[in-house]
Amino acid sequence: MNPPEEYINNFQEQHQDINKFNNNSNVPAINSLDKVRDILVGNQMREVEKKFTRLEERLIKESANVRDEAKKRLDALENYIKKEVESLTEQLKIEQLERDAIVRTLAEEHKNITSSLEKKVTQFNEQTTNSQRDLREQILNQSKNLQDEIRQKYEEILVLLEQETKELRRDQTDRSHLAALFSELAIRLNYDTKS
User: Fold this and answer.
1) Is pLDDT of 9 > 70?
2) What's the CA gap between 36 and 29, in Å, rounded?
3) Of these four, 45, 46, 71, 168, which has the most CB atoms within 10 Å of its CB?
4) How far is CA 184 from the centre of its chain?
């Protein structure tokens, strides 16, 4: 289908020779040379020109096909890449939203735990304060009770001591009576023994 290179090169050389000759000679010679050339190589030239034209058309058609095919493939590749990028972007957005939700949840949990701990610490402090107050009150009450008991015992002891003192004094008086009685009895006995 393609003309041999040798044939094309010969044709080009002949064509150049003819052009040189045409440039150097006058116009009537050009017309006769054109006729000679047309007779000698006219059919071959027309065949070669047809083949070149068909080849050129085929090349244009093939290059257009290649261009169209490449464009289709590039468009398909571009669409695929766009879809993949959109898909990845969507996945990243979803993952980001999930992470944000998890972070918010963790922050909320942390806040709740912190609040709960603060409440428990406050409750513990209140309980400790209440317990200390109760202990102080109990100690105060017990010390008051002990003081009252000690005062009561002291008063009871004082009363007992006074009673004992009174009894001792009474007994002492009874002893002096007894002593006086014994003295009187001794005197009487002495008197009776003398008489």
Assistant:
1) no
2) 10
3) 45
4) 117
pLDDT on residue 10: 53
The whole-angstrom separation of Cα 93 and Cα 90 is: 5
Nearest Cα residue to 21 out of 33, 38, 39 = 33
Distance, first Cα to last Cα, the chain:
202
pLDDT 10s digits, 56-80: 888 899 899 999 999 999 999 999 9
Q: What angle (nearest 5°) sits at the alpha carbon of residue 111, between those of residues 105 and 113? A: 100
User: What is the pTM assigned to this prediction?
Assistant: 0.38
Which residue type sits at 159? V
pLDDT tens per residue across span 128-186 = 999 999 999 999 999 888 898 888 888 888 888 888 888 777 766 666 777 777 788 78
Q: How many CA atoms lie within 13 A of 155 on its CB side?
A: 5
On the question of pLDDT at 111 being above 60, the answer is yes
Q: Measured between alpha carbons, how far is 36 from 161 in angstroms, rounded to an integer? A: 178
Rounded to whole angstroms, what are the CA distances from 186 to 22, 65, 107, 182, 189? 207, 172, 112, 6, 5
Three-state SS at 1: coil
Q: How far is CA 130 from the centre of its chain?
A: 40
Nearest alpha-carbon partner for 114 in 130, 122, 103: 122
**Close Cβ partners of 121 (under 8 Å, ≥ 6 residues apart):** none
